[in-house]
Amino acid sequence: xxxxxxxxxxxxxxxxxxxxxxxxxxxxxxxxxxxxxxxxxxxxxxxxxxxxxxxxxxxxxxxxxxxxxxxxxxxxxxxxxxxxxxxxxxxxxxxxxxxxxxxxxxxxxxxxxxxxxxxxxxxxxxxxxxxxxxxxxxxxxxxxxxxxxxxxxxxxxxxxxxxxxxxxxxxxxxxxxxxxxxxxxxxxxxxxxxxxxxxxxxxxxxxxxxxxxxxxxxxxxxxxxxxxxxxxxxxxxxxxxxxxxxxxxxxxxxxxxxxxxxxxxxxxxxxxxxxxxxxxxxxxxxxxxxxxxxxxxxxxx
Length: 301
Known about the structure:
This protein is of the alpha/beta class. The protein has eleven helices and ten strands. Helix content is about 35%, strand content about 20%. The chain is globular.
């Protein structure tokens, strides 16, 4: 069933119809990826669609994603929340640390593009992209890689910053009891020698202790590079961007500092604080964030 048919059903339905939630799936690079389409009770041809990308090792049904998507539906905004494959087929729930890790941040580019194309193909005329935490960085990577994409704007919630990623590297020894640099050198050499898919057993990877990970995944995650700085990527974009920072975020603590130089740049980059929100924008913070996002979307017809 295509979204355009669902839109017609909703438009022709009785007044007071409830917002709808529908499972969706696509095949990207040979793997089935899953999503949930949420549409407001009253759907019109101009109803905007926001494609939403979750944070590190998370999924489409986290409280952050579902609470915000439902709040946006109440404000007349449709959403597609999707789960990144992370190398798996039909992935559901949090990525299990015991599962071997073979995925790159850039893998998200093709998946986001596929869901954006689906949104356009099935009836969305105004499509926006949203990312949370490292998912915001992956959204920015997508926009940088696909500048020709028909996107009306982007929303970044607590986006990962350069200092956030640097702190993760600096804390490796205290978190896992081993030096990071020798492991990165080993992984980089394997990649350079054409053995990037070789497995390594490491003391830790991302948030996972005693992990099994491919050399290419380890090297890509822990080698510093400019695209880990979401603000740098946003600075090179031409489309409107809204950045939301929680005033009580203790996970990514420097969003305001990182994006302030871009804020107000000919009205292209908006930077706003969500009072009393932590990193996850829950409860009243979700309502506040939804208000800001709905206003941002409405201002871009």
